[in-house]
Protein 1
Amino acid sequence: MSDNVKNEKVKFEVLSGVVGQETKLQKVFRKVPPMIMLCMAWLLFMFIVALFWQKFAPFDYEEQDLANRLSIPKIFGGEDTVHFLGTDSLGRDFLSRLIRSIRTSLLVAFCGTIITAIMGTALGFVAAHFRGWVDETIMMLVDFQYSLPFMILALLVIAFFGNNMIFFVFLLGIEGWNKYARLSRGMALSAQNNGYAVAIRQLGASPVRLYTKHILPNVSNILIVELTLNFPAKILAETSLSFLGLGIQPPDTSLGSLLSFGRAYMMTNWWLAVIPGLTIFLTTLSMCLLGDWVRDTIDPTIRK
Amino acid sequence: MHVKYFLVKTLRAFITTFLLVVFVFFVLRITGDPAQAMLPDDATEEDYIEFRQMWGLDKPLMEQFFVYCKNFIHGDFGQSYKDGRDVFEVISQRLPKSVWLMGMSIIFSIVVGLPLGIYAALHRNSFGDRFVMGAAVFGFSMPNFFLGIMFILIFSMKLHWLPSAGSDTWLHLLLPMITIGMTRMGSYARYTRSAMLNVLSKPYIITAKAKGANRNRMVYLHALPNAAIPIVTVIGTSIGHMVGGSVVIENVFAWPGVGRLLVSSVAVRDLPVVQAIVIVMGLAMVLANLLVDFTYGLLDPRIRVTAGDK
């Protein structure tokens, strides 16, 4: 396969006489399959919408207009030309709510992913560094997390402590920490005995310096791959909980709660449920495909 | 030697169960006053006194924990806020429905996923193969509640083929079962495919082929048992996802199981019920994992011998 590509490349370069003429950017883009390009484009679009949501939203997402409830927009054969995607059951502009939801869902998932990555990696390094009972305890917690599904754990914690945005983000941060911990522990254990790690330690570097400045960059590839796989899982966790009415609370809105509210009007205004659902699906799908591709590209030897 | 493997695994299961109970106990205690958390707002002074006595709240923490464990072992989870019924009774009414749905979903995803994976491995790079690989990504990225709602929209609302809510007949089972199953089916197929491909290139398969063993015999008798370990691993690790997913799906299809009870109890903060369901689900997970470990041991003698030695 790769030989083929190489041959093609050589042929192309010889025939067109442009050896060395290609810019770096062109090179990068030629390597990326069209499917992945599409995924990247979609994700980029989502992130831009999330970042500049106020610029995109045509109306205030909270503004109600009870006289104009569940209006059917023109693109779905209705009369409403003001609201591009119609209005919801309280007469709020659906497109604005969708944009706000994209922003909330992505922001929450993003923060959650970062928290998980930092916490999981740090715990893995701590386990690898101290060994002994520290290692045993952390690994016991990892095993424990495997046996208690995140969904159940989240529901328990929400039931006992209630819920708010900040708390919810940290709760999402728990999801999947065990995978990072296990990965980073394994990698730190093998890295510790590498020449460079031994040399730096003998030069008198502190463990913190050793792990953050030297071991982390060496194992970051694998952790980044885990990041791209963890992000979609975060989106799914958040939207599931919000769908059940236990995640993001009104007046704020997320893709999950939007879908949950849209459910009741499926016979007449099906897009109220379908569009948020598709948005979630396309985003997680793009991220998964991108993650798979990055994994295969960065290091062909890593396999799930 | 073999007994040792199973003993070690059982011991680990007990440790996990213990951790689970400690965890829930811990969560309950850091809310402050458990009596206040666990009793409804209209509870009388006598209720409080009785509750504190029953759970030993006036005693030292260690003793409280023992009382807590003792009550659980006796199946005494307290009373529901909502209707004052015994929590144990409420849950045991719902549990069979959930177990039934989960069991059928797992069987469904295995019965469909495994043959798909085998087919993909035998017809590498064909259209079917690509389909299987695509299905795995689809299953992973599709939000299960959205899939469920789409099914309701298509099969219940538009076509009127299947009921969208309830659990009375086996027709009611179909949609939730397929929804839960579909999210995992693809990944089962994908892992089966890679495990089979790995095994099919081994010398003993080539030998079997050279000796003229027929294809079915070769695939099902020689290859599949050797590919079973990674497949069982994937099924084992996905049970947690499925249990978590079934909580959502039970709500989508109004399935009267434990998951739906859990969500409605969390919404009204019916803490005795929530606590009991979390323990029951955790126990179910521990049992499922134990079963998977035992299956390993049975499938592969090397595992039970080396792990037993450690």
Note: The two ends of chain A are 21 Å apart (CA to CA).
Protein 2
Amino acid sequence: MSQPIRLKDHEKDARLVRNRVVVGAVAIMLLICVLIVRLYYLQVIQYDYHSTLSENNRVHVQPIPPTRGLIYDRNGVIIADNRPSFSLSMTRERAGSDWQQVLDTIVEVLKLSEDDRVLFEKRMRQGRRPFEPVPILFELNEDQIARIAVNQFRLPGVEVVAQLVRHYPQGAHFAHSVGYVGRINEKELKTLDPVNYSGTHHIGKTGIERFYEDSLHGQVGYEEVETNARGRVLRVLKRTDPKPGKDIVLSLDIKLQEAAEAALGGRRGAVVALDPRTGEVLAMVSQPSFDPNLFVTGISFKAYAELRDSIDRPLFNRVLRGLYPPGSTIKPAVAIAGLDSGVVNAGSRVFDPGYYQLPNYDHKYRNWNRSGDGWVDLDAAIMRSNDTYFYDLAHKMGIDRLSSYMNKFGIGQRVSLDMFEESAGLMPSREWKRATRRQAWFPGETLILGIGQGYMQATPLQLAQATALIANKGVWNRPHLAKTIEGQPPVDENPMEDIVLRDKSDWAKVTHGMEQVMHNARGTARKAALGAQYRIAGKSGTAQVVAIRQGEKYDRNKLQERHRDHALFVAFAPAEKPEIVISVMVENGESGSGVAAPVVRQIMDAWLLDENGRLKSGAVPATVAEETAP
Amino acid sequence: MMNNFDRMLSSEDVMRRRASFLQRIHIDGPLLLILLTLAAGSLFVLYSASGKNWDLLLKQATSFGLGLGSMFIIAQLEPRFMARWVPLAYLFGVLLLVVVDVMGHNAMGATRWINIPGVIRFQPSEFMKIIMPATLAWYLSKRTLPPHLKHVLISLVLIGVPFILIVRQPDLGTALLILAGGAFVLFMGGLRWRWIISVLTAAVPVAVGMWFFVMHDYQKQRVLTFLDPESDPLGTGWNIIQSKAAIGSGGVFGKGWLLGTQSHLDFLPESHTDFIIAVLGEEFGLVGICLLLIIYLLLIGRGLMITAQAQTLFGKLLAGSLTMTFFVYVFVNIGMVSGLLPVVGVPLPFISYGGTSLVTLLSAFGVLMSIHTHRKWIAQV
């Protein structure tokens, strides 16, 4: 087979290549046009878009959180301030590719647990922009900061960051009045102003911190900064300073607060002391209490469970949320109602055989003193806390008038001006019973309301306010904790109507009865007033925890300690020109005059006497010697 | 066209007769002028892109010097001499790639370098960028054109072996450039259009197969983020979004030299290497990029002219392929930075920082100069 020898045709090859060069050149020109069109699209048509994008890249608006307002007591002692707190943050990109290894090192260096490690990793994975530091551990102590510093070379991208965090130097003293701040949670995030809170991590959760959140928080500031992709600030372009939160001066007095706590002496209970002339709360104790600092940076689940499940209920605010039948402490207010409505007068008398019976009923409504006090008038009824007299008074007055008068005294109403989550208590009425129980009102229910039992429920704060109204002759000043906010007193947007009696001297009549409680030889709380350098007007009470059946007697030995009656006492002094009103509740204390009254006396001494045990100037001294029974 | 061609020929004739200095040392004047312009432009842009880093600038200038030296030496080699040694060089190159492949697997990761400490350190894949088209040009120049199917298939095997070895490194960008280098020789050799079209049609199922069996996850990720950069704006999409923002914010005239915020504030990744066009676009705008494209076009035009005027088929095929591949560099780089193409590691020729690619590119232009200046005029008659 002969293969034809193919000669290379150079001319043909050259032509072929030349054609391909032309095709290639055309293709290149077309593709260059594609590039130019693309660039035209990016640089001319989309110029505004990319320009903005690039500018946003460069310029960051950083919120500057305002400094939270400070809280002082009435003498300028700091109750809540802000302290630097250190947290550990990590930048993933700067930690290198092996950032998990760095986490291991942190755990090792700080001697943390595997759970912490898991938590760190979870937090790291929530990171947002590249080069943005992610906080992974809060509240570093000095030892931990030192450990991090020493091992810094092993911890690329890890840094210790300082921020201001709320601190309560007085610890548990004001946990129930001032409250505390805590980390903003999901739910709060939805309702908060996202702009004003853009740099803030904490918000008031309870108490003053919550009620005055708007004033304490302040206005956020801004800083327009030029940053690089690592988030490092290169220079500040523009700055709007934040407006710090307003400082609040409370009417609380730390010395009186401590005195009140000491007077309670470790027992569970509540104390409210207020100035009847202004409504300023001078002391507010709910025992046991807790350390609010625990809640600021996040309390551990275990510690929280301990507080929550404790049988002593330290988290429970007894002053504002504790509801108790007011018992005999309400009798002065009922007496005012009786006098003003005309069903009794100072001279009218009731015979007490030791019980009271409604006409045509067998049921005996018992006086606490089973043997009876004989003929009693108003003065004696208050002094002896005579139940029969008040059964009779309540019966004559009827539920409608009684309910209306008690409402005027604040029972069943929120009385405070600036306290968070105050309970309204309960003052029953016909309408209330129909609406909630679908039952008609029974006359017997009116009787027991006359001695503060039955459906009636009030907080220690309401009892203090009802007493303050008697001390202040019906002029309403809502109890409040804030004396001034940035120098301005708080404004009552919804003032209560003053109680105006047809005969103003009725106030003095009831006050006189309350003075007899303390200073008369037959007064129920005379022991508590022994040796007082001022006149006290007071009234004891007991609040039943468990009901006693008809015909049975209260026998403390049969009852478990936690089922014993709560001891109540309300009082004001000096009786002639009241400066302080105190309401005390001792849980399971049993005897108002025996247990609660000495507490009241001790607090009054702390407020009205100076260091030498002498009456402070301005207070009215006791001029009248012990009175005898009428 | 023909007229132009003749006139140039005659002017070349005149040049030859004058036997200018450049001619005697086998350097092409226009090419050299354009390359020096690019070198100056590169240093100018790099000064800004590197954040006024003089050390880096000095290194780049040194690389330019090294590359020009390499170009000068290669220009002295006669094309015939090259053709003779190319097959051996090809085998040597493939051997080195195999060595890298084995070493790379032992070193557990991507290795592209041959590194004999203290002696030499280079990438065999860079070497193949020139050897690949030269080998095919040598092979096809000995066959009749357009090539028969058998020769085409053998050519594909010759391309395929180094291509796969480089893909395995893994270095998709370089592999594609080498594939292009080989393919352009076939194209210049008059590969039949119907074959070209059928291969392009077949590319779709091949691409699908590659996706599932060949590509690494990081490469797949690159394609995915290319298709939708917004899907992962903080991870892999970050580069493209930032480079588009850099180019786009440059507008028509740019923000001015050293005033590009994207690159100077570190938002732009790899701003002095693969993404340097974004710095150019940001600081000099559309006008700046167009100016660069014009310079590139002049370079490519000159390359195509050398192709057309080459005397031997080997010279024609090699010069044509090198020129076309050079354009692929430009197109792929600008295309990827502006978000038209996936991000594959292809530097912007002569502008991006990096000594290796600079030396390779200048060597390639040395080959072009050699082809152009070793023409035998007597043979023409």
Note: Chain A touches chain B through 45 residues (CB under 8 Å).
